Amino acid sequence: MSKNTKLPLPSHIHALGVPYQVELVDVIDEVTDDMEPTWGDTTNISRRIRVAAFLDTRRRWSTLWHETLHATLYTIGAQLSDDVEEMIVQSIEHATEQFMREHGASYLKALDTEKD
Length: 116
Description:
The protein has helices at about 55-75, 80-110; strands at about 10-15, 20-25, 40-45, 50. By secondary structure, the protein is of the alpha+beta class. Helix 1 crosses helix 2 (about 80-110). It is globular and about 45 Å long.
């Protein structure tokens, strides 16, 4: 697959069994603290994750994972300040990406093996 090929996002994900609709959108009506466009957002009430269409494939998928982590925190009822929630989500996101880059194939293979 060439780097320019877009690997499509799923239409929905589950955060601990709770379904969230996934939408690829042109614009998210928010900006970051440094006035950059927002890459994604999660709405717990409507159970919706939006990902910015202008992102490349890697960033779309990492944004979907990032927003899935937010959805998971909402699902467990975590009540955190925005700053603390973002710190937790970013830490788990980056740790997971590093683990999957280093051990992802083995991990997925192990999941497919029969239980002893």
